[in-house]
Amino acid sequence: MNPFSSGTRLRDMIRAIRACKTAADERAVVRKECAAIRTSMNENDQDYRHRNLAKLMFIHMLGYPTHFGQMECLKLIASAGFPEKRIGYLGLMLLLDERQEVLMLVTNSLKQDLNHSNQYIVGLALCALGNICSAEMARDLAPEVERLLQFRDPNVRKKAALCSIRIIKKVPDLSENFINPAAALLKEKHHGVLITGIQLCTDLCKVSPEALEFLRKKHTDGLVKTLKGAVNSPYTPEYDIAGIADPFLHIRLLKLLRVLGQGDADASDAMNDILAQVATKTESKKNAGNAILYECVETIMSIEDNGGLRVLAINILGRFLSNRDNNIRYVALNMLMKAITVDAQAVQRHRATILECVKDSDASIQKRALELVYVLVNDTNVKPLTKELIDYLEVSDQEFKGYLTAKICSIVEKFSPEKIWYIDQMLRVLNEAGSFVSDEVWHALIVVISSASDLHGYTVRALYKAFQTSSEQEMSFQSTSKKKTHQESLVRIAVWCIGEYGDMLVNNVGMLDIEDPITVTESDTVDVVKIAIKHHALDLTTKAMALVALLKLSSRFPSCSERIKDIIVQHKGSFVLELQQRSLEFNSIIEKHQNIRSALVERMPILDKATFSTRRAGSLPAAVSTSSGASLDLPNGVAKPSAAPLVDLLDLSDDLPAPSSSGGDFLQDLLGVDLSPAPTQSGLGQIQKADTDVLLDLLSSGTPIQSSSPTTEILLPSQNDKSPIATLDARSSSSSLSEQATSSARAAPMMDLLDGFGPSPLKPEDNGSVYPSLVAFESSSLRITFNFSKQPGNPQTTLIQATFTNLTPNVFTDLIFQAAVPKFLQLHLDPASSNILPASGNGSITQNLRVTNSQHGKKSLLMRMRMSYKIDNKDMLEEGQINNFPQDLGS
Amino acid sequence: MIKAVLVINTQGKPRLTKFYDILVLIDPIAYENFLPFSSQRRQTVEKQQELLRSVFGVLCSRADNVSNFVEADSIFGPDSRLVYKHYATLYFAIVFDSSENELAMLDLIQVFVETLDKCFRNVSELDMVFNYSKLHNILDGIIFGGQVMETSSAEIIRAVEEISKLEAASNSISLVPKTVSGWRSR
């Protein structure tokens, strides 16, 4: 009769499965067993039913399908014996769940067993119901369970209480019936029943506002008394966990009190004293004691405000933070994260301890703490916090570095009080963890550097030094054959800045007080870039950036030009198309196009932060580049192809107010045209093509245009050579070839193209003014001519030199020049060189004007003027208006 | 609420799995679209294995000196935490939601293991393998439908022993279970 007597026994099956060497073996054994069980089931073999199901449960745990055993469960449940019922219910809980139709069939058996005279069978049925109850079953069986809440045996009562939780969760409407019996359980003396009763009440409060109201009114005081009793009760070894009396009861009580106190001042008031007692009296050496404290803190933070208690609670968390147990520190950080919304000030007090946790040996605690620190940062503490974090960056684990770097960068960007601080911090981060800095971060850094014009010199020197140190370190690491990741982003930024501001590096321009002067020769500077380009580990982007930097340096340092050319030429045979092409193009610029080189490689205009941010956010501004000539709007702001880094970089400029947008485009064409991805926006392709042609024309000798006139002549920025330049311009503005006719009107944009960047600081005389001068006013007695120029990096502002010439044979005295401009312009007049103008053009007066166009690119300049002077003490007054300013000055 | 209790050995073999929250196990899309139960069922079995694998992957990669808490949202869905303890060749893990106290769950593992130890007199992995149904009896005595029911190991053992006695009694005199139970319930 013993079900374990024949066939393979459960034990044997387990042994057989354990003996399997491979997963395939195991599958074979299980398949064989399952087949045997199915056969046995089909034969309706009652003796083996029990054992079959036991086996199936084991097979189920191993992860094989066992649904064919479900009907067997029902049969076992329906049988009379306790062992059959027990295994049947066990199988029911494991093999079935609330979604299965079979469950409908079991409701009736459950109902019978809930009313069974054997309390153990009632217990089994309750247990099964508590695990698998569906909404339908809840409705059908709720009356039975409700009745069992008053059953004489406490073990049944506690099961009934927990089963009720499942029922009210499934069908909240039923909660009304449970309120009174549940409240009655709160007066229980039996420990198990009390604890489950409290749980039931907590869940009732969650699903039913009436229950919450009722329990709050009638039972808050009683629960406070119960908790008081538990706190002060003599030691009961039965419910002791590691020396702490009954933590679960404490925790359950605190949870229910939390629900009752939340949003109700009276109830919160009633529990203040006992909470303070728990918070101060509980032993905090053991985990169980801390569990109680932790729960108590959460209750204090959730109930209605009591300042004193909250300080107590946050101090407990502060103590937790310095606990040696990882778990305690972890939960404390979790709770502080919640507490920060309640009382940020109190959490701030523990900043130092939290900061210590960032340096924890446990990675999950580090991460939590860092998140918390990130939330704690504000304008007042950003400096010390960032310093601490960056200091830690030096010694942190490799795995944590990436995460830490990202957070630091984000903090620095968000809270930076001044640019120099931002740059300093970022340089430190680049030094320590350059390989973890994301592209977005170093792009943003370049934007900031570019806009801090007074810090250019400082930054480039700092970067130069950092780069030197970094490569020296690397050398020493190589010799000890240790692995050291090169600080890629540091190199990129350094190379970019050296390219842009190399001259400031050599001449110690813009020294700050905090700096020590360094001696760097032009050749040293080139060395640095050379190291970057030669370094085998660096990637294509960095090398490409280094090439651009070299090109720029070739113009900044004419003495090194030959050497730079040699370095660039070395890449002529590079297998990477990108580098090869740059090498060839740049070489050709250095060799053949000396005259435009300095203009081509002029400093980047100041990058605009707002535009960069929108760009970064992924939305390409609709009309970023405003231009009279060609408008090339590369679509690379959205999907950046990794092979087009330079475009990316230069691209930053073309949506900004460049000195002349056609010039900006031209530069881009020249330096990055072939990096641009296939045009993704229809319509652009045509334009890009045209621009490419320009470049090809420029760089290849032998095209019809250039053979028609000598190259040098084309590129001479002289006003006589208008025709070839006009040709280029016509192309760049993507107009038809017919427009290449030698129209002098078209010459202006090209002039601007070459001069738009202003004179290079090293050889300003090379360029001169290329904006055509303008006769601003001419009458029978007086002529005024305007000469225009712009400062590099400041395209909005036009500098005008006005020259006054006297056309009469009489001397003008007391000459006063007045000018008026519309609101969108700002005008600044410097004093005139004199107020006496000699007769008959035998000398002139000059006066400088500065006009800043706030609508640069949208509106053109406009000016009204009035000249008053005296001839033989006779007042003269003349007036005029200028609306024919050169187009490219600002429109 | 407790969502699951898992015992896995250090080789990744499950030794005890009990899920209290069915939503952990099913694909919510299949559930909401009323896919045939058979296909849901297959998913359930597969999902269970997948969960065990992910949990084991997380547990065995954790160092000894770290906390016992794991963010389990990626494995068990939103609002899931996992507490585990490592005893000899076994990992004991409890998955639960934010309504439970993490530190108390750690204590609950302690209660479970202490109870096993008392039941089997120095419990080993083998005891757990071969006394599969007794293991479930013990667990059902501690956790009931995802709620903590009993934390006193003496109480738990008493309940388990009563069940064992009943089984033994009805096995030896299988024709008179009613008399036994009738006598007991009096």
TrEMBL record, chain A:
Q: In which residue ranges is the amino acid composition biased (Low complexity)?
A: 730-744
Renumbered residue ranges of the record's region Disordered: 705-744
Matches recorded under SMART domains: Alpha_adaptinC2
The family database entries (Gene3D superfamilies) matched by this protein are listed as:
2.60.40.1230, Leucine-rich Repeat Variant
Task: Spell out the subcellular localization from the entry.
Answer: Cytoplasmic vesicle, Clathrin-coated vesicle membrane; Golgi apparatus
Family annotation (SUPFAM superfamilies): ARM repeat, Clathrin adaptor appendage domain
Q: What is its main location?
A: membrane
Membrane topology summary: Peripheral membrane protein
Under the heading Pfam families, the entry gives: Adaptin_N, Alpha_adaptinC2
Sorted alphabetically, the Gene Ontology BP terms of this entry are:
intracellular protein transport; vesicle-mediated transport
Compositionally biased residues, Polar residues:
705-722
What are the entry keywords?
A: Cytoplasmic vesicle, Golgi apparatus, Membrane, Protein transport, Transport
- Domain GAE, residue spans: 769-886
One GO cellular component this record assigns the protein to is: AP-1 adaptor complex
**Which protein family is named in the record?**
Belongs to the adaptor complexes large subunit family.
Q: What is the protein's known function?
A: Subunit of clathrin-associated adaptor protein complex 1 that plays a role in protein sorting at the trans-Golgi network and early endosomes (TGN/EE). The AP complexes mediate both the recruitment of clathrin to membranes and the recognition of sorting signals within the cytosolic tails of transmembrane cargo molecules.
Protein name, entry field? AP-1 complex subunit gamma
Species of the source: Salix dunnii
UniProtKB/TrEMBL annotation, chain B:
Where is this chain primarily localised? Answer: membrane
Q: Name the source's superkingdom.
A: Eukaryota
Q: What residue stretches are annotated with the AP complex mu/sigma subunit domain?
A: 46-166
Q: Does the entry feature the keyword Metal-binding, yes or no?
A: no
Location in the cell: Endomembrane system
Q: Name one GO biological process term.
A: intracellular protein transport
InterPro entries, A to Z: AP_complex_ssu, AP_mu_sigma_su, Clathrin_sm-chain_CS, Longin-like_dom_sf
One Gene Ontology term, aspect cellular component? membrane coat
Q: Which Pfam families match?
A: Clat_adaptor_s (PF01217)
Keywords, ordered alphabetically: Membrane, Protein transport, Transport
Matching entries from PROSITE patterns are given as: CLAT_ADAPTOR_S (PS00989)
Q: Which family does it belong to?
A: Belongs to the adaptor complexes small subunit family.
Protein's UniProt name = AP complex subunit sigma
Recorded source organism is: Salix dunnii
